[in-house]
Amino acid sequence: MYDAPHTERDVDQQDIKISARKVQVYYGTTHAIKDVDCDIEDKTVTAFIGPSGCGKSTFLRCLNRMNDTIDVCRVEGDISIDGEDIYDKRVDPVQLRAKVGMVFQKPNPFPKSIYDNIAYGPRIHGLAKNKADLDEIVEKSLRRGAIWDEVKDRLDAPGTGLSGGQQQRLCIARAVATEPEVLLMDEPCSALDPIATSQVEELIDELRQDYSVVIVTHSMQQAARVSQKTAFFHLGNLVEFGDTGKIFTNPVDSRTESYITGRIG
Amino acid sequence: MTDASMDTPQPRRAKTSLMTEDARTKKRNASEKRFQAYGIAAIATGLFFLVVLAFSIVRSGLPAFTTTVVDVNFTLTQAQFDEAEGQLFKTKAYSGYFITALQQKLEAENVQVAFDEAAIERIMGKIGGTLREYYTANPDQLDEEVAFKLNAASRVDGYFKGRVQRETLQDSRFLTLADLDLVDALAEAGIVHTTFNWGFITGADSGVDNPGGAGIGASVVGSFFMMLVVLFLSLPIGVAASIYLEEFAPQNRWTDIIEVNISNLAAVPSIVFGILGLAVFIQFMHLPQSAPLVGGLVLTLMTLPTIIISTRASLKAVPPSIRDAALGVGASKMQSVFHHVLPLAMPGILTGTIIGLAQALGETAPLLLIGMVGFVARGYPDGLIGGFTDPNSAMPAQIYTWAARADQAFYEKAWGGIIILLIFLLTMNIIAIILRRRFERRW
Q: What are phi and psi of A72, to 5 degrees?
């Protein structure tokens, strides 16, 4: 079952970063994602919206194979990044996750210093040749995470001692420190207050310069604010996928319209 | 909201003032108060028994740490030595000199008491033999004044500690009422007095007829070696098993069976492990009997389930978001476990390990079966190197041995041994608490 009409999409084939075809996800016997086709563009923010339990987070976690850690979860179909099938036998999920970074719903800094939080990824991937190199990566990442000015004097302080919004920006900085190509964000602002949310949103907009960003959100306003493309999921189906402006002003599917006008969800 | 509730004209809840307690609230508050009272009563009962226990242990055990000694300065001349060695009953000659010297000393102190050789022997043992042994070994000490510190007989020791009383004393070949007068006189002259018993802490067990010489030192060393074996086997095996089961193993029927069986093992009576150790380690593998190595192996089997269960619990308590975070930046499964999960679980693992060790330290039953209750008079710490394979005892087994002996004097030794054992256990628990505090990190 594929509900999004192809004709409505205005996708430049040159820029496609991730392409998913006929993706099925099963949790044990539950069919959580049904037949999803989706192309995610480079240097674009793509938002996944939909009611709770519609499968948007599950689909997001397929993109860096985080679902591998769940025993009962089974993924079928093709997902490729830059034309390479990420579910191929030869692909090491660890290598994939270095390429596809992730920011989680709840800020989850390591219980270590701010410096070590950022430096951990570059260290295990051998991105820094020496201490000065590492210092530079840490500073650059914290600047990208728009948190450098707040923490530059206390890099030795524990990351868990920061406020919720700062922690989430620290996690974003940690994710960009490994220089991924795609950044997945699973409801990154759901635990944040409006001020922290707007800071993170600004940050997402800046990150678009270099990355393909995929964000799952419950807030339609947020999707409208930060994304260029929006995908609407409902009961495991990708109902509609297209330019954000079009989805919010002139949806094709009646379910999309019901959701964005607040009748379902 | 149903139609029925909409039809009801009267609200279910009557309008009441907040200032008065209604019947239901009163009842609820009363039951809460009752429950709190039960709790306080339970804690008070527990504390009461704890205090009684601690008091009785200290009261019964403290005498084991003191001993009664005969402190006497004695000079033997070369002439006396030659004369004694020329006689048929050599030791009798020595004790004759000693008694004369003692008599002179008492006269100098102005203490009047009559005694004979037999009384001296009852009070401080076969003095002649001791003296002869000393002077034949150290002939250079002849003509010099030597301060002898002799252990008083255990009944004399008991008289000082209140175990033997004049009113109830029956004259026997061990002690007579007249001897006590002599003891009192000697005490008055400062010759007999009680002192701290280092021998109890450092010494080895003694024969059944010599409670005064019994010490717990050798079995402390035995327990120490066993704990080393337990620590170095059960910690790595237990932690590795739990990490594999908790983080890597697939969730299926096999891992479920293993999990259930580990929990069951923790509940197996310790004597079963003892008989298993006897069959496997001693009869099949021919490891030396009564050795701390075998004791340690048996206690390792017992401690493993405890360590595995506590380690798994503390691994489970690490929030999954930390694992996600590590995997999210591209760490491998093993990196996420060893860099992030394990350090966070460390306080729990250490606490579990030390509690497991403390449990093993106090375990007696399996040691009975592998023969670690033997009489060990070996002079540790001379044989420290061979300590893993030399026969030895352990603290709880030693306490058990003493408690089973007939002589009243061993009773206080058993209690004293319990004090030493408890000191070790308390120390280990304090270390566990300190380690937990040190390693604890919030997330």
A: -85, 0
**What is d(CA B119, CA A107) in angstroms, rounded to the nearest whole number?**
85
B137 pLDDT exceeds 90?
no
| Stretch B318-323: mean pLDDT | 91
pLDDT at A129 over 90: no
Q: What is the ipTM of this complex?
A: 0.84
Q: Which of residues 236-265 of B touch A (CB under 8 A)?
A: 250-251
CA terminus-to-terminus distance, chain A: 21
pLDDT at A196: 83
Instruction: List the domains of chain B with CATH numbers.
Output: 69-196 (no CATH), 217-439 (1.10.3720.10)
Asked if omega into B305 is within 30° of 0 (cis), the reply is no
CA dist A239 and A248 (Å) reads 14
Per DSSP, the three-state class of A40 is strand
Give pLDDT, residue A10.
46
Beta strand B145-151 pairing with B66-75: antiparallel
Lowest mean pLDDT among A195-209, B81-95, B325-339, B342-356: B81-95
**Among the partner residues B251, B340, B442, nearest to A110 by beta-carbon distance:** B340
Q: Would the CB atoms of A101 and B321 count as touching at under 8 Å?
A: no
DSSP state for residue B367 in the 8-state scheme: H
- How open is the CA angle B95-B98-B100, to the nearest 5 degrees? 110
pLDDT at B179 over 90: no
Contacts of A94 in chain B (CB under 8 A): 330-332
| A48: confidence class by pLDDT, cuts 50, 70, 90 | very high
Q: How many helices (H) and strands (E) does chain B have?
A: 19, 3
**A interface test, pick of B318, B321, B322, B329 with most A CB neighbours within 10 Å:** B329
- Write the single-letter amino acid at B288: P
The two structure tokens encoding residue B288: 């030396």
Mean pLDDT of the A193-220 span? 88
Is there a contact between A171 and B325 if contact means CB atoms under 8 Å apart? yes
Q: Which two tokens stand for residue A145?
A: 């995470």
Helix (H, G, I), strand (E, B) or coil at A16: strand
List CB contacts (< 8 A) between B324 and chain A: 66, 69, 102, 104, 108
Chain A residues in contact with B326 (beta carbon < 8 A)? 110, 120
Whether A71 sits inside 8 A of B339 (CB atoms) is no
Question: How many Å lie between the alpha carbon of B325 and the closest alpha carbon of chain A?
Answer: 6
Identify the residue whose tokens are 């860099």: B339
- Per the structure block, which two tokens stand in for B310? 């506590």
Sequence letter at residue B212: G
pLDDT at A13: 45
Q: Using the beta-carbon criterion (under 8 Å), do B321 and A108 form an inter-chain contact?
A: yes
Query: Is B330 in the A-facing interface, judged by CB distances under 8 Å?
Result: yes
Tokens of B439: 């390693």
Whole-model pTM: value is 0.80
Q: Which residues of A114-144 are buried (b: 16+ CB within 10 A; e: fewer)?
A: bbbbbbbbbbbbebbeeeeebeebbebbbeb
CB B322 within 8 A of CB B276: no
Q: Which helix (H) or strand (E) holds B5?
A: helix B3-7
Question: Do B328 and A64 make contact, defined as CB atoms within 8 angstroms?
Answer: yes
* Cβ <8 Å between B328 and A124: no
Quote the CA–CA distance of B214 and B159 in Å, as a whole number: 18
A219 class by beta-carbon count within 10 Å (0-12 exposed, 13-18 middle, 19+ buried): middle
Q: What value does the mean pLDDT of chain B take?
A: 85
Tell me how far apart the alpha carbons of residues B199 and B221 are, in angstroms, rounded to a whole number.
Answer: 14
Q: How many CA atoms lie within 13 A of B423 on its CB side?
A: 11
Q: Is the dihedral of CA A133, A119, A79, A227 positive or negative?
A: negative
A78, two tokens: 């093709």
Q: Is the pLDDT of residue B86 over 90?
A: no
